[in-house]
Design brief:
The chain is mainly β. It is 4% helix and 65% strand.
Length: 501
């Protein structure tokens, strides 16, 4: 099964206006001097004054002064998770005891024989092999930010607009995980550079040199003991350099912190005598990733450095964050198996008998505990062959969640090397907000199917004697009715996540 989940705010479209104007435009009318002159001319005899001008004139005065701006933004930005999961495999072994009470003396010809049969699951086991999980995480963005302005000084106005941000269809792979390795920043790296590590249980932080843009990943392992170390303590970081063709500046920004694990779910379970079902249930960590949003935007050239780690030679190191924003998904793998079983029988007669509801027949197949009545016409031998009818419900999927942290003003400083530290201290954060969010379980595989592959077991033959005028009595089936029925069945399914360029 495979699917895609978007982690981030819903698409947005917002606008806001700022500023304002004072004053305004006014109009007033006054007598037209040309009309006055025309009136005088027109009063004189024997003169031609032409067409009369307008009697009044109108003047408009604009005192509008001020400025106004509007900002509008729309788009979508966040992380897109692509994942795939198969259901693994499962095996089962079941042990039964079955018995029947049969007449110990002859019965009359044509007499109906009713057997008391029973079956009990004495013990059973169910084991599973872990499913295979794959995932990739892409940084996606479609963002626009437009600004328009209008300014006026005593009626003289001008306006304009500009596009400040236009990110169209940005998509780069941040991380991908398959059963063998973790690949980092595939979409951010030059084509010839590959950053990957074998999959394991050691957290890794990704960093970039501010000057050379050289990339490093730091596994959080204590350099002295080899045990996992504190990811916030520079002493415990064992650096592995990528793209080391030129010396670094010693100034780094963090891009992401990853803790990916092989989700081993090799479950096994037992049942006790009298139980009808076997149930397995387990959960295992798969991925915890925190993308350093401010660091990624710094690396992409969108923001100035808000957080920095510096190495001053071999003995002095420290870090400071003005603003640190980390967000990312947490994924756990869960799996549940429920096995429901019944003991079945193929009963073969050496001669025909009259089976209730069926008629004359030489065999019958069905639940051992629901063996029907039958009528004999002579001494008859019945041979049972037992088998298991098992139904397995398999539910496999992911538990999705997300974590986020925002820290304001924090840092640390270490002076020393190895086991010798002359000084070690930290401060902040002066403000912190963080939290977790659960998106719930997504069952990628949830189905019930017949579990095959069980072997059959031929039970002890039962002889029914037929005579005249005798009374039937009952004796238990001998101890040979103890049965062992076992087998294995497998289930496999895998779809790879789509890789987007």
């Amino acid at each position: 099964m495979a699917d895609t989940v978007f982690i981030g705010p819903d698409p947005w479209s917002e606008s806001e206006e700022f500023g304002g104007f004072v004053g305004g435009a006014t109009s007033f009318s006054y007598p037209n001097p040309k009309r006055i002159a025309w009136n005088i001319c027109n009063a004189l005899p024997f003169t031609s004054c032409g067409t009369a001008p307008a009697a009044t004139l109108t003047t408009r005065i604009d005192t509008t002064t001020g400025a106004e701006a509007s900002i509008s933004t729309s788009g979508r930005a966040g992380l897109e998770l692509n994942y795939a999961l198969d259901a693994g495999s499962v095996g089962s072994r079941l042990e039964y005891v079955a018995h029947a009470d049969i007449p110990g003396t002859p019965v009359e010809k044509g007499q109906i024989v009713s057997l008391t049969t029973s079956a009990e699951l004495v013990s059973g086991s169910l084991d599973s092999q872990s499913p295979t999980a794959e995932a990739s995480l892409d940084v996606v963005a479609d963002i626009t930010l437009d600004v328009s302005t209008t300014g006026c000084v005593v009626g003289g106005c001008s306006s304009g607009s500009t596009n400040l941000i236009d990110v169209d269809g940005f998509r780069k792979e941040l991380i991908s995980i398959d059963p063998n390795e973790i690949n980092y920043l595939d979409g951010f790296l030059p084509e010839a550079v590959k950053l990957s590590t074998p999959i394991g249980d050691v957290p890794t932080s990704l960093e970039a040199d501010l000057v050379t843009r050289k990339l490093e990943f730091n596994t959080n392992v204590n350099n002295d003991t080899g045990a996992p170390g504190d990811p916030n303590d520079p002493k415990t970081k064992k650096d592995t350099v990528v793209d080391s063709t030129e010396p670094g500046s010693g100034l780094f920004v963090e891009l992401a912190r990853v803790d990916a694990k092989v989700p081993l779910l090799a479950l096994d379970g037992q049942t006790n005598a009298g139980d009808e079902d076997i149930t397995l249930d387990g959960t295992a960590d798969f991925l915890a990733l925190k993308a350093d949003i401010d660091g990624l935007l710094t690396y992409a050239g969108v923001l100035p450095p808000l957080g920095i780690r510096a190495d001053f030679g071999q003995f002095v190191s420290g870090s400071v964050d003005l603003l640190d924003i980390e967000v990312g998904p947490t994924i756990s793998l869960f799996q549940t198996f429920r096995l429901t079983q019944e003991l079945m029988v193929d009963l073969s007669f050496d001669k025909q008998v009259d089976i209730a509801g069926i008629g004359l027949a030489s065999s019958w197949s069905g639940l051992w505990e629901e063996l029907p009545d039958f009528t004999l016409f002579g001494t008859t031998v019945a041979t049972p062959t037992f088998f298991t009818q098992a139904m397995l419900r398999s539910t496999t999927g992911f538990d999705f969640g997300a974590e986020f942290d925002l820290d304001l003003l924090k840092g640390n400083l270490t002076v020393g090397s190895g086991s010798f530290n002359a000084f070690e201290g930290s401060f902040g954060p002066v403000f912190n907000v963080g939290g977790q969010k659960s998106f719930g379980r997504v069952a990628l595989f949830d189905d019930t199917f017949a579990l095959g592959g069980f072997n059959t077991f031929e039970g002890q033959a039962m002889t029914f004697l037929v005579g005249n005028g005798t009374s039937p009595s009952q004796i238990p089936l001998p101890a040979g009715a103890w049965l062992l029925i076992g087998g294995l069945a497998g289930l496999g399914m895998l779809r790879r996540p789509k890789r987007r360029g």
